[in-house]
Amino acid sequence: MFVSRKEHKITLLRAIEVSVDCGDVRVAQSLFKAWEKHFGFNGKKYKKRLEAIREYLAYGLKIEQEFGRGALLKFDHPDIQKSIRDGIYSDRSIEIYRNNGLAFKASKIRST
After folding, report:
1. Which among 25, 32, 36, 88 has most CB atoms closer than 10 A?
2. At what angle do helices 5-21 and 47-67 cross, to 10 degrees?
3. Which domain of life is it from (predicted)?
4. pLDDT score recorded for residue 76
């Protein structure tokens, strides 16, 4: 089955966004590098989403360097605790994340 370049772009972008939603910085980083290698950043269509992902990766890698790999997947991370206190995460979403082992959602990705 032949996959067009457009379908490949959409699939790769969705895969990056899923890994970001799961808080998996390393997977998101490797998929983002694949995007850079194959597609670059010449187009305007996905520019905002890609910039948000790039910012998330910079933030996530900084957090992982400071707190260790997988820090964004833990509920005891200071940013997660602040988000819970500020009401960014609802009780239902916290329950879902705990059941699935997910704790961090990139707010910039969600808002673009």
Report:
1. 25
2. 40
3. Bacteria
4. 63
Q: Using CB atoms within 10 Å of the CB of residue 27, give its burial: 0 to 12 exposed, 13 to 18 middle, 19+ buried.
A: middle
Residues 6+ apart with CB under 8 A from 108: 52, 55, 56
| Residue at 88: amino acid letter | I
d(Cα 17, Cα 109) in Å, to the nearest integer? Answer: 7
DSSP calls for 95-106: HHHHHHT-----
Q: For the whole model, what pTM was predicted? A: 0.63
Q: Hey, is 23 helix, strand or coil?
A: coil
Domain ranges of the chain: 1-68, 74-104
With a pLDDT cut of 70, the percent of the chain lying above it is 66
Kindly state the DSSP code that residue 44 receives in the 8-state scheme: S
Rg of the chain in Å (alpha carbons):
15
Cα 112 from Cα 96, distance rounded (Å): 23
User: Scanning the structure block, which residue is given the tokens 């890994």?
Assistant: 19
